[in-house]
Amino acid sequence: MESQAVTSGEPSEPLLEVRNLSKQFAQRRPLSGRKFTINALNGVNLRICAGKTLAIIGESGSGKSTMARCLALLETPTQGEIMFQGQHVLSLGRRGLFPVRRRIQLIFQDPTSALNPRLTAAELIAEPLVIQRIGNKDARQRTVREMMERVGLPATSEGKQPLEFSGGQRQRIAIARALVLEPSLLILDEALSSLDIANQESILSLLAELQRSSGLTYVHIAHDLRVVSQCADEIAVMHCGQIVEHKSAAELLARSEHARTRDLLAARRPIEAIRAERPPKVSA
């Protein structure tokens, strides 16, 4: 079944458009060795407008992370099209994808495992500039310091390694590392789920300010409707590799139509109740 996006007033050429996207994984059964196929994505269609925030939510195994990796060009879809800034990116070769990858950045759920523990904060943030061959050493050092200040990290911490930072600070390093290439699209794959409430709200405030100042476009991949409802312009609900409902955030929260969406709404816990159980920590 082909998923349908229920939206209104979108421009004819969005920043990113996904058409009939499918992704299959071939697996073998552990005892018999027989092959079988997992349909992680099945006919997904999405339009993501520049400067907006789209949240993609769903339970574990719904295909959210596979979608994130396909959008970030880390996975090649089995079929379908990905249009970025009007360009068919899946038809590009390795050389053609090199500049596109600079414009699309992915932030992972766990910054501890995503960041090389042997590198300092400054080296981690500068690494994408080195890979893309942007600037000389002095220019990169200036850019790193500007990015650290922009995401709320003290310049005096540039020589520290990831494990010397708090979880919230490590995620700020990951954000700075992603933004140093000045992307147009930032994909956050459960990037807030490992943080406490205070740090979640602090990072959401940071992302909102970065979006206002730079016109960034966000795709939030999450399972927690409470978190994404604070920042999303639109919400798409995934189930079994398909998008079963896609509306503006206000409309979906006020009037959901699919049973899976209603389940997610029912599971949403008020922020006040969570704070009562665990007093907020000092944000990073």
Summarize the structure in words.
The protein is an alpha/beta fold. The protein has 2 domains: 1-85 and 187-275, P-loop containing nucleotide triphosphate hydrolases (Rossmann fold, 3-Layer(aba) Sandwich), CATH 3.40.50.300; 103-183, no CATH class. The protein is built from 11 helices and 10 strands. The strands form 2 sheets. The chain has a 6-stranded mixed beta sheet, with helices on both faces. Strands 2-1-4-5 form a 4-stranded antiparallel beta sheet, covered by helices on one side. Strand 1 (16-28) and strand 2 form a beta hairpin. Helix 4 crosses helix 5 (137-150) and helix 5 crosses helix 6 (167-179). The longest helix has 18 residues, at 197-214. The chain is globular. The termini are far apart.
